[in-house]
Specification:
The chain is α/β, with parallel strands linked by helices. It has two domains: 174 residues, Quinone Oxidoreductase, Chain A, domain 1, CATH 3.90.180.10; 148 residues, 3-Layer(aba) Sandwich (Rossmann fold), CATH 3.40.50.720. The protein is 27% helix and 25% strand. It has eleven helices and 16 strands. Strands 3, 4, 5, 6, 7, 14, 15 and 16 form an eight-stranded mixed beta sheet that branches. It is globular. It starts with a strand and ends with a strand.
């Protein structure tokens, strides 16, 4: 058997702002050999999430920062090509922390999950877009903390993104009226036409406060926040009594590291509202519940997903930067290798870079 080569992107310098060419290096090494209790996974798709950028900073979080010289961490999906682990057979499809690399060692631990069902029936794009951490985050944040009720008004920021697009659809399924916030008319059209939101506000148009007043005349009952900063502050200014604010992310400040506090937080007091952060990994034991519900809604045609797909391991950094320049609609992915079982039906629905 010919030696497998593993192309990897490693961290060479901690970035400031967008990741620059000098911050990373694409290297080639022999693919690792699995030891007892391990399996070798060939990466097919890498998920590009905003959290990847935070791991490049030398700051503690729910996972330690990536160290200089290490492969950049990211979640992905792949196929088992060798196995010395009872949990995985050759041909199995698994989600795991692939990192920015073509092959990765996986073990029977919390970071690796076999995708159920025959491999030939697995839609890897759907797994990455809905039936993984992205969908779980939307589910536990919106349904567990937001708890939208029929007739309520729900606002979702970064509504054209992976998590926001799913979260807003879940609020619609619950019977709420859903208003998205996104950047640019192209994204706003996708939020309404593709994801079924009732309306979408273009925050780049510069009239966010007035648009919130127009689309949320009775106030905001649930706000699912992915961005923080001035947008969070503006929505806090429109809260309805007993509102719930779900803190999912602060993408507006991931590049700068600055987190300006919202002046309108006092509305939490006057409106007796709740604002709560969460981490979907804390609900790991309930992931099956979440995915069962999401699959049912997709089968019923109530839940759709889109992807923006970059090609090749060398495009990972461009895809990561693209999250912060507005390049994606739906889940941002990098296609690293061709799945053994084709996915032409769903992949055509993605928006390709």
């Amino acid at each position: 058997m010919a030696e497998r080569l593993n192309r990897q992107i490693v961290l060479r310098r901690r970035p400031t702002g967008l990741v620059q060419p000098e911050d990373t290096e694409l290297i080639t090494r022999p693919a690792p050999e699995p030891a007892d209790g391990e399996a070798l996974v060939r990466t097919t798709y890498i998920g590009i999430d905003a959290a990847v950028r935070t791991w490049l900073n030398d700051q503690p979080g729910y996972l330690p920062p990536v160290q200089i010289g290490e492969v950049i961490r990211a979640a992905g999906i792949g196929e088992v090509v060798e196995s010395r682990c009872d949990a995985y057979a050759v041909g199995d499809i698994v989600t795991t922390l692939t990192g920015f690399q073509e092959y990765v060692i996986s073990r029977d631990d919390i970071f690796t999950t076999p995708v159920p069902g025959p491999p030939e029936e697995v839609d890897q794009l759907a797994v990455m877009s809905v039936y993984g951490p992205t969908g779980a985050t939307a589910y536990f944040g919106m349904m567990g903390i937001g708890k939208p009720q029929p007739g309520e008004t729900v606002v979702v920021s970064a509504a054209a993104g992976a998590t926001g697009s799913v979260a807003g659809q879940l609020a619609r399924i619950a019977g709420a009226r859903v208003v998205g916030i996104a950047g640019g008319p192209h994204k706003c059209r996708a939020v309404v036409e593709d994801f079924g939101f009732d309306a979408c506000i273009d925050y780049r148009a510069g009239n966010l406060k007035e648009e919130l007043k127009k689309h949320c005349p009775r106030g905001v009952d649930v706000y699912f926040d992915n961005v923080g900063g001035p947008i969070l502050d503006a929505v806090l200014g429109r809260l309805a009594p007993k509102a719930r604010v779900v803190l999912c992310g602060v993408i507006s400040s991931y590049l700068t590291g600055e987190h300006p506090g919202p002046a309108n937080y006092v509305n939490l007091l006057s409106k007796t509202a709740l604002m709560q952060g969460f981490n979907a990994l804390d609900e790991w034991h309930r992931f099956d519940e979440a995915f069962a519900a999401l699959r049912q809604w997709e089968r019923e045609g109530k839940l759709v997903h889109r992807q923006t797909v970059y090609d090749g391991i060398e495009s990972c950094v461009d895809a990561l930067n693209g999250l912060f320049t507005g390049a994606n609609i739906g889940k941002m992915l990098v296609k690293v290798s061709e799945p053994t079982h084709g996915l032409p039906r769903m992949e055509r629905q993605g928006a390709h870079a």
